[in-house]
Amino acid sequence: MLGFSIDTSAFSVVPMSAQADKGNLKYWLSKTPDERFAAIEQLRQVAYGYSEASAGLQRVLEVIERPGG
Fold this sequence. Notes:
Blueprint: H1 23-29, H2 33-48, H3 52-55
């Protein structure tokens, strides 16, 4: 055992159809797409970490011609 436990009283898991409070949906629908995207990015960084080294990396595509092509 790693020596930690989860406080299951702090949250509950319910199907979306069983939610009585639709305030969360109304909240996010009131936000602009840019604000929603920024929130998703913040959650991604919390879950997977943030590295300034990888923030500047870009994918590079190189096109080459095949002989006879």
